[in-house]
Amino acid sequence: MKALQRKRPHVVIVGAGFGGLQAARALGKAPVDVTVIDRNNHHLFQPLLYQVATAVLSPADISAPIRAVVRRQRNTEVLMAEVTGVDLERQEVITHERRISYDYLIIATGAAHSYFGHDEWGAYSSGLKTIVNATSIRRRLLLAFEAAELEPDPEKRRALLTFVLVGGGPTGVEMAGAIAELAHKVLAGDFRHFDPRESRILLLEALPRILPAFPEHLAQRAQEALTHLGVEVRTSSPVEKIDEEGVIAGGGRIPSHNVIWTAGVSASPAGKWLNAEVDRAGRVKVLANLTLPDYPNVFVIGDTACALQKGKPLPGVAPVAMQQGRYVADVIRRRVTGQRFPGPFRYRNKGSLATVGRSFGIADLGKLQFAGFSGWLLWLIVHIIYLIGFRNRVLVLFQWAWAFLTFERGARLITFESTAKSPVDEPIEELL
Amino acid sequence: MKALQRKRPHVVIVGAGFGGLQAARALGKAPVDVTVIDRNNHHLFQPLLYQVATAVLSPADISAPIRAVVRRQRNTEVLMAEVTGVDLERQEVITHERRISYDYLIIATGAAHSYFGHDEWGAYSSGLKTIVNATSIRRRLLLAFEAAELEPDPEKRRALLTFVLVGGGPTGVEMAGAIAELAHKVLAGDFRHFDPRESRILLLEALPRILPAFPEHLAQRAQEALTHLGVEVRTSSPVEKIDEEGVIAGGGRIPSHNVIWTAGVSASPAGKWLNAEVDRAGRVKVLANLTLPDYPNVFVIGDTACALQKGKPLPGVAPVAMQQGRYVADVIRRRVTGQRFPGPFRYRNKGSLATVGRSFGIADLGKLQFAGFSGWLLWLIVHIIYLIGFRNRVLVLFQWAWAFLTFERGARLITFESTAKSPVDEPIEELL
Description:
Chains A, B: Residues 350-405 form the External alternative NADH-ubiquinone oxidoreductase-like C-terminal domain. The structure is a homodimer. By secondary structure, chain A is α/β, with parallel strands linked by helices. Chain A has two domains: 8-111 and 264-335, FAD/NAD(P)-binding domain, CATH 3.50.50.60; 120-262, FAD/NAD(P)-binding domain. The first copy, chain A, is built from eleven helices and 27 strands. Chain A has helices spanning 18-26, 49-53, 66-69, 131-150, 154-160, 170-186, 216-228, 270-274, 318-336, 373-386, 390-406; strands at residues 10-14, 33-38, 42-44, 63-65, 76-80, 83-87, 92-95, 99-101, 104-107, 111-113, 162-166, 200-204, 231-234, 239-243, 246-249, 252-255, 258-261, 265-267, 284-285, 291-292, 295-300, 305-306, 308-309, 312-313, 352-356, 360-365, 368-372. The radius of gyration of chain A is 22 Å and the shape is elongated. Chain A starts with 9 loop residues before the first strand and ends in a 26-residue tail after the last helix. The model of chain A is unreliable at 418-432 (pLDDT under 50).
């Protein structure tokens, strides 16, 4: 690659998620050269990934090409490459093909789902962090019903129609609601040899309550909404084992071919790259200005960072990452232009939202807390506003309206790798 | 599967393409039980598949769940299964798991692309018949530009940016136009180390002219439109070889990493299942009523059939398949209800359409023949009308309008199988 003749400081951003993209955009007019490196060519709007997994939206609806997002920033280039390490002494980012030198480095590589040391569970369950995760889950969900139509044995059919979500956080709750509606409403009437409404959807949470990040009374309302949709919520049910037969939790075995893991995440390998001190989730411990100790030109943000506020680590949510991205961009711009340090990063929590099914949501805006249709409406508005690109907004809004009015799902699509020959003939596990 | 207690004749339809789905719908009110068997869970609107391959539309936009299409037909069941053969004597369709007995059988399994005995070419080029084909081509197209951004060697970059379409039929012509617009318009400005407008798009045709199915003067207009879009059209250039370096055609070698094959198709293996007489393309030779000789209750339609009209075989296009599907449904309904035979199948050719780029099309409606924006508009209207489902129509229309007005592409998404680790690091061939 023709090396740019750089007179200006070079900012390298690894990862084009919420944090990295905000940083890149905020540096668009700064007197620096910016290089955004991502293994994918697109930014992914993860909060709606569960809607791809449940056949509401298509992957492209919640993705935006990184190049298109920063096209008009002439100081910004995008490299699609896999970062394998960082050379802190030489100030270089290492990819498979080359080393890219930096003056300032922003690590925003996010997190992956984690089985808390039980990686073998990954063979029998799926996490939900990438588009491939989402389309695999979509395929398994839809194939389970197809296989049930062909399954004469009632017990085996029951296992096919039992969907277990591990983890009572927002993702688990939203997935459970969406799967319940898929089974009990969308697919009702589509089969001749069984009734999809027989399907069981279980939500397992190890703690005594779901949605621990929300106030008790809102979580309670969400649980009632889930129950109303036909989801069995089991709290204080830590998972002991996941195998080809299903899940063992709270002492009992739940036969299931469809286990979805939303219980835990661990940060990207950035901690190893930087040889830095990390927390239990593998997140890099950073200083109050989000830099790596002893490396004031290396920033770590978003799910990859363990940043403390009032002694407590900030949650791994999009708003934190976005605010951190804008903050580090501001810090860098001020340093380059010789302005004074803006002071330590402070997260302003604008509140949290979660949705259960097609018309119920909970909103915790600090003083203002409410649940119901109004919560769902706020959830919808906020997500549409933050979704990148007018086109995607219109497409998603239309498809939501369509799904809302007709109970249809637009993306009921089972696709296979070129290698896979036949659909229902192969064990569903293999399709993960 | 709980066998249905059938008092009524059982019609088994293999394949839910244009022909099979038309037959199923036409039998919805007939006094028969209908079973539709397909390896996929969705009907695919193949005429727009090239728009998935060129990042205009998402796979789900041109797909409809078969179950949803026939949901209201209580006499119709859908089985997602892979048919492996037919037992004509026992009147049974054989799938991996079971045999399904029929009183009437409709084979509508379509065609696959064919390399005319050069299957080894498949390793270095891709056909366009399935959604997996389309997303693979999309991935390769987009990755070629990503790799070019990282490629210092001008010769290698030139090979990455050379796109060769083999076959001057409608698919090749429409793909060429769409790729030219992607390279010269959509991606212009998205890269910093090369100009996507350097890209070469070649359309190779073995015959002396493209679009042989169209009148000479319309094909000429289409060729001018392609040239205007920057496509190099080479007629009388039969392909001699396709390998990892590119294509050898008309004596010369064309270095290219992106070869797309639209030159030939061969029918599904139905001919072997039926142990029937087939033509050179593997299509089953059927009688004037579309039945298999000696088997008046076995029908073969669409791309799988070689049906003669005025001594000439009918073309493998959607209108033929749809009219044949309705015809065989009519024949079966009449037999079951004791009405008289409707007479041999006659194809009514309503005309042919092809489009070049975003605002030019050709239309051959027999007496009425025209080219230009009007041809494109007619193409658009016809395709929207035949696209199944109001939702898909709105989504596709909106995305076309968006692409037309902004020159953006909505589905610029590179996705990988869970196995694939890193994007640009692996040879593009492997991503096929």
